[in-house]
Amino acid sequence: MTESEALAAAQAWLAAQADAVIETHIAQVFLVGEDAFKLKKAVNLGYLDFSTRDQRAWAVGRELELNRRTAPDIYQAAPWIT
Question: Any idea what the Cα angle at residue 3 is, between residues 10 and 60, rounded to 5°?
Answer without folding.
Answer: 65
